[in-house]
Design a protein that fits this description.
The chain is built from eight helices and no strands. The protein is mainly α. Helix 2 packs across helix 3, helix 3 packs antiparallel against helix 4 and helix 4 runs antiparallel to helix 5.
Length: 125
């Protein structure tokens, strides 16, 4: 079900879409969750940070504990979240590089020193 809620609707097969609609019709809380997730994904994909206050208000008043907690976290660092949903710049490449280095370090844990780690990082591009 999580995949049905988080994937783009165009990525669902006809059978999955039918099962999704059936499930959402039987559970109003899940339908509210699906609407909020879709709305947030659209904001993220289309860089529509100006819609964030409205989305946070909807999420906080939805009565869904997990979504409300997420919205509260967004609200606590509002300026950074709005910038992330508005500007086309991101740190994805840097995060990818850091993740790769951490993975290499975990693979070598306890087996090698800094010299070998440095060599693997430089050669693993």
């Amino acid at each position: 079900m999580v995949g049905w809620l988080t994937r783009h609707p165009a990525g669902l097969t006809l059978d999955e879409e039918l099962q999704r609609k059936t499930l959402l019709a039987h559970c109003p809380e899940l339908e509210t969750t699906a609407d909020l997730v879709r709305s947030f994904a659209e904001m993220l994909a289309d860089l529509e940070g100006h819609r964030l206050p409205e989305w946070i208000t909807q999420a906080m008043t939805s009565g869904l504990r997990g979504i409300s907690t997420f919205a509260n976290g967004l609200n606590s660092d509002y300026d950074a979240v709005e910038a992330g949903l508005t500007t086309p710049w991101n740190s994805g490449h840097v995060e990818g590089a850091v993740n790769r280095i951490k993975m290499l370090k975990r693979q070598m844990f306890g087996r090698a020193g800094f010299t070998l780690l440095r060599k693997r990082v430089l050669l693993a591009t």
